[in-house]
Amino acid sequence: MQKPSILVARAVFPEVLDKLAQHFTVESNTEDRDWAGDELVQRLKDKAGALTTGGQRIDAPLLAACPQLRIVANMAVGYNNFDLDAMTAAGVQGTNTPDVLTETTADFGFALLMATARRITESEHFLRAGLWTQWRYDMFAGAEVHGSRLGIIGMGRIGQGIARRGAHGFGMEVVYHNRSRLAPQLEVECKARYVTKEELLRTADHVVLVLPYTAESHHTIGAPELALMKPTATLINIARGGIVDDTALALALRERRIAAAGLDVFEGEPQVHPGLLELPNVVLTPHIASATVGTRLAMAHLAADNLIAFFDGCGPLTPVNRPRSE
Ligand code: 8YV
Prior knowledge:
Layout: E1 5-8, H1 14-21, E2 25-28, H2 37-44, E3 49-52, H3 60-65, E4 71-74, H4 84-89, E5 93-95, H5 102-117, H6 120-128, E6 149-153, H7 157-170, E7 173-177, H8 184-190, E8 192-194, H9 197-203, E9 206-209, H10 223-228, E10 234-237, H11 246-254, E11 260-263, H12 274-277, E12 282-284, H13 293-312
Parallel strand pairs: 1-2, 1-3, 3-4, 4-5, 6-7, 6-9, 7-8, 9-10, 10-11, 11-12
The chain binds 2-keto-D-gluconic acid.
2-keto-D-gluconic acid binds at residues 53-54, 75-78, 101, 287, 290.
């Protein structure tokens, strides 16, 4: 029997490519270029499956040009690069990589919170610039983390991981806002109290964003929300670019209307708003919250296993839609 043809849209671990090659005829992006638009369509139009990494937009025009496509396995828990309605209507299965990255991403959320509140990158730049001789009593005096109030917007698996770290590890008072409340048992485990978004923004010392990007969550934090926050507060975004209005944030940080921000995701990444790049009170990282060797390997294997299970007829392991023809 002929193996199905698949496209691996960015470079992945060689062992994952080897595994895929046992089941599929694989075209892979060994040069790891950013295939977008027409080039992606050209490469995908004769393929039955694809492994994507979150940066490739799968939308109605692409689907119309790729009639043989049956499944796109995203190597990411977020799948806002999918036009899910268009995929479902075209009979194309989508999958993601939940669970395997939860704890690693929660670790990073907490690391970014610590780095931001305690001004770690700013102080490192100062030291490397040979400026330490200018010591003062309030040099890099930041915000308290232990015992402070942690506000989490988006209380899925990663949000819950951050809540546990804050409550159990740092004695923080955790409040959260989410589309729906957690089950009482989970609230107890996370030591987290449900509040309105407004109360969270007005009272939290540290606000962490971990919600999925959708049309409804676009600019969840803009100028009006930043205006509610304490002038001493920090804002952490490990969710998606577009959840925060980066222009409004750059202005609020410049005017010190909030103290600091830690950002792993950006509107229009890999571009970063120039107003953010020039500020000292923001910690910037290039979308690396899930980037440990073990977790990236687990994500790549899960994406590959989704493709294998689907074509074996067992059904995808972690589907995100139910296409009509499946
Ligand atoms: C990845 C992510 O950085 O899982 C997600 O939703 O944003 C990240 O873990 C990325 O998409 C890697 O493929």
